[in-house]
Amino acid sequence: MRKTLVWRWAWRELFHGQLWPIVAALALIIACVFALSALAGRIESVLTQQGRTMLAADLVLRSNQPLAPEILTQLDATGAESSDQTRFGTMAFSDNSMQLISVKAVESNYPLRGALELQSEAELRDKVQPGELWLEERLFSLLEVERGDTVDVGDVTLTVSGMIVSEPELSFNPFSQMPAALIHQSDVDASGVVRPGSRVSYRYFFRGEDSELAAVKASYTLDEGQRWIDENDGDRTGDMLDRSRGYLSLTVVLVIIMAAATLLLTCQHYVDSRTQTLAMVKSLGAQRSWVRRWLSRQLLMLMLMATVLGLGVGAGLEFLLRLPLADVLPSPLPSYGILPWVLGPLVALLVALPALGIPLIRLVEAPAMSVLQAQSKVRARKNPWSWLLTAVPVLALVAWSYDNRLLWLVLAALVLMLSLLAGLGVMVLRFAQKRVKRPAFKLALSRITRNPASSGAQLGALATSFMLLSIIWLLRTDLLEDWQQTLPPNAPNVFALNIAKQELGDYVSRIDENNIERSEAYPIIRGRLIGLNGQNYAELTPNREERDEALRRELNFTWRDTLPSHNELLQGSWPSEGGVSVEEGIAQRLGLRLGDELTFSVNSQEFTATINSIRDVEWRNMKPNFYFIFDPELVETLPANWLISFRLEQAQSDILNGLGRDYPTVTLLDLRAMSSRIQAILSQVSLSLSVLAGLAVVSGLLLLLTLLRITLAERQREIMLYRTLGASKKRINTTLWAEYGIMALVSGCMAVGGAELAMAALLKWGVELPVRLHPEVWLVLPTLAVGLVFLTVAWMIRGLLEPLKR
Questions:
Q1: Closest to 715 in 3D by CA, of 698, 733, 694
Q2: Beta pairing class for 522-532 and 579-583
Q3: Residue 674 burial (CB < 10 Å; 0-12/13-18/19+)?
Q4: What integer best gives the mean pLDDT of the chain?
Q5: What is the pLDDT of residue 678?
Q6: Cα–Cα distance between 522 and 499 in angstroms, integer?
Q7: Which residues have CB under 8 Å from 481's CB, separation 6+?
């Protein structure tokens, strides 16, 4: 009978009005962790799959020399599937024309990842067989051939089997591209093109389990001119997706922090409201063991309800987050596994340990004397378990995200801002109190500033809540704006290279006649950076492998009278009198400064240039960009070809084919497929970030609602006292509205300043984006703060004023 009474009382307490935010907060934590951990595994799978698809394998060995047969046998012994590829440039001859082409000689099992689409006359194919020749679409017009015609590649005559529709490997160097053709690896020797001294590159593709790939790497030591490539090196969208992952983890932690704050506030208020009740029960003979059983039953029911609700909502939330990514997620989808089902309740339990445990320990330890001395300074004895309960989730957070710089920046900003905002808020209110004349506002300000510690905590909590909401939304907005500027919908997707100077005017006119959006024309010269301030880099760094990558290869140089519109001048002035403008990244890597003298070599001719300026260059925007831009007078006499980029839609392939046919010496690099893929990924990730931001807003609103609900409940006794002293209902109502209106406005304004400072730190050191102000938030956030507070107060104030009607 006694056990039944304990359960019934616990059940009634569970549905007490003060406890539902605990269930909601715990369920929110479980739902977020479940959904995001389940989706994270799938997204990670997608990122890995996309990176490997663009490599056509799981792992690639790139070499400038072929591997010996015994080494290939050694690599095959690891168990990983392999495929070889030989790349070379050569002339292709048809009966009516000839063209310089880039040949990929592949094996029949190519590609090991991704899809190869080859259009023959009757069907789509996905493999290259011996004796076949597959051509890029524009080569049909350049060579004036059709399917079934023959083309000579070196000493071998091959029959055109069809057209290359798409291939998984994507190249991003617009300065070394020729129209592509595919042949079988077995036809290379017969062609006689690959000879000692030929410019050939070799690729060895591998597919297998991670252990097999690790064995492949371990079984071979790289020589000069060789490198391993995996999905982390080959995906152009890696930076965007890395930032998405950082935003995802940051959002999850902030949601958990806001939910934990909701738990703490709700439980603290519950303890305050139940201290006298339990003291009375203890005075009637109840032991602490009985109180512990009573509270443990409540906590058990709370956790069970929150777990069921949270896991159910989490499954639905994961589905919503997955919808924007439907086109890029693998099919069939991998299963959740057991981890999300365990991780969600586990994180909620870790958060609940200090948030619920510490106040409830205080409730258990409350002495029976509290029933007689409610207003005295009776205190429960300190319990060492409180420190342990706090340490467990803190240590778990450190272990989980010790290397997440973005997260720790935000947490540090929260601690700093909460203290600053609380103190600043109290100072502002005290200043206003001395200058306000209206009685209602004076009474409201007096009430707020009566207890500086309590008022500061309330203002700091409100301001921090609004600040967190602003940070989450502004960071999402800045990330999306950065991506849209990086690759806007009208970004160029075709490069025309190797345009001779005498053809440039006609070529540009042809593009303009078709109303095609294009870039300016850039002259291109190939050369090397070989010295700094009179010293040769070969002498400064004798070991070639230790030199910066830009010092080990030829670079593309250009010259201009003015700064390119898509570059930003950071230091100095535009090059003149033998000067050069240097890109910021290479300047930092090589330690270059304004006034340094650089030595360059172009066509075996050496010349020097003085650094006049440092530029910021966005390499991801698919526009012509360069490490070095010279003063025209310095290099314009050197032989150069010209480059133009422009944008074509998929339906404008006939224009591209016409340009290729009429200007056969101009190399056209068609990046439309790659651009479309990146745009699709950007759009899908953007939608997912918006869903995450919306979820964080819900968590923040729950925290705000809890804050206001608790502070309003604390006014109940004061309202009765005011009424007893003769205050009218209208005066009390006006005072309440004034009090919460002032708190909302002050906290909203403080949140704006805090959000701007936090965003500046996040943009500079967290996601490494340009720092900027957000003027829109200066108007929106205070207005939103006042609106949300007024809506909440309007919803709850009727219950507070209800006793005044009698």
A1: 733
A2: unpaired
A3: middle
A4: 75
A5: 63
A6: 10
A7: none
Do residues 102 and 178 make contact, with C-beta atoms less than 8 angstroms apart?
A: yes
Among the listed residues 263, 300, 345, 250, the one whose alpha carbon sits nearest the alpha carbon of residue 25: 263
Question: What one-letter code names the amino acid at 507?
Answer: Y
Nearest to 140 by CA among 184, 191, 97: 97
b/e 100-135 (16+ beta carbons within 10 angstroms → b): ebbbbbbbeebbbbbebebbeeeeebeebeeebbbb
Q: Which residue type is seen at 384?
A: P
Contact predicate 500/572, CB 8 Å: no
Within 8 A by CB and 6+ apart from 567, the residues are: 615, 616, 617, 625
What SS3 state is found at 50? helix
Higher pLDDT, 379 or 108: 108
- The set of long-range contacts for 547-555, using a CB threshold of 8 Å and a minimum separation of 24, is 548/586, 548/589, 548/590, 550/586, 550/589, 550/590, 550/627, 551/590, 553/528, 554/526, 554/527, 554/528, 555/526, 555/527, 555/528, 555/529, 555/626, 555/627, 555/628
Residue 60 has what pLDDT?
87
**What letters, b where the CB count within 10 A reaches 16 and e where it falls short, cover 139-164?**
bbbbbebeeeeebebbebebebbbbb
Strands 535-536 and 494-499: unpaired
Tell me if 741 sits within 8 A of 748, measured CB to CB: no
Alpha helix (H) residue ranges in 323-450 = 339-365, 385-401, 405-433, 439-449
Higher pLDDT, 203 or 745: 203
Separation of first and last alpha carbons in the chain: 41
Task: Give, in order, the Cα–Cα distances in Å from 270 to each of 130, 314, 323.
Answer: 79, 27, 40
Is 692:321 a contact under the CB 8 Å cutoff?
A: yes
Beta carbons within 8 Å of 461's beta carbon, 6+ residues apart: 261, 265, 418, 707
Q: Which two tokens stand for residue 412?
A: 């540090």
Say if CB 361 and CB 376 are below 8 A apart. Answer: no
pLDDT in tens, 729-770: 677 777 777 777 777 787 788 788 878 877 787 777 766 677
Q: What gap in Å lies between CA 756 and CA 265, rounded to an integer?
A: 27
**Radius of gyration for the chain, computed over Cα atoms and rounded to the nearest angstrom:** 35
Question: What is the percent of the chain with per-residue pLDDT over 70, rounded to a whole number?
Answer: 65
Smallest CA-to-CA distance from 633 within 611, 609, 615 is with 609
Two structure tokens written together for 459: 């203002």
Q: Per the confidence metrics, is the pTM higher than 0.85?
A: no
Burial of 420 (0-12, 13-18, 19+ CB in 10 A): middle
* C-beta separation of 313 from 29 below 8 A: no
The single-letter code of the amino acid at 787 is G
Cβ atoms of residues 204 and 140 within 8 Å: no
**Calpha distance 413→66 (Å, rounded):** 55
Question: Rounded to the nearest 5 degrees, what angle is found at the Cα of 572, between the Cα atoms of 571 and 573?
Answer: 130
